[in-house]
Amino acid sequence: MTKQLEVQLAELNAKLEQSAREIVELNSVKSRSQAEIAEHSRQIEEAESQINQLTKLKQNLGKQLEEAKASLEEESRLRAKFQTEARNFQVSETRFARSSPFQKRHSSPVHIYFPLTDISLQFLVRDVLQLPGFGCRRLFS
Fold this sequence. Notes:
By secondary structure, this protein is an all-alpha fold. The chain has one domain (2-139). It is 79% helix and 0% strand. The chain has helices at residues 2-99, 101-105, 121-129.
């Protein structure tokens, strides 16, 4: 009977050692899994942060686009207005040049051309009207 107990004891010790090795291996797998979970959690947080940044950037770019569209519409409206005013000025200037004493002293009519791409056209017209001897101020008053 002692022999049987010794054999049983040896088998149980072997099983105990095997179980201890399995516990160590499972703890190692558990540690690796926890490290991977921590790494994946960090990557998810970084991705969420980037998503938030990109969302804010998208909103800012949308606002800038809307502002650019509004600015373009305003500039187009002003350009059309200044082109109309310039055409009216050229017509008035031609009528004035035909009847002015300046025309009688010089054989060719006075022609003034304005670049219509610049918003400063209104300031150019104002400056021309203030030149000495330019007598059509009454047309734009």
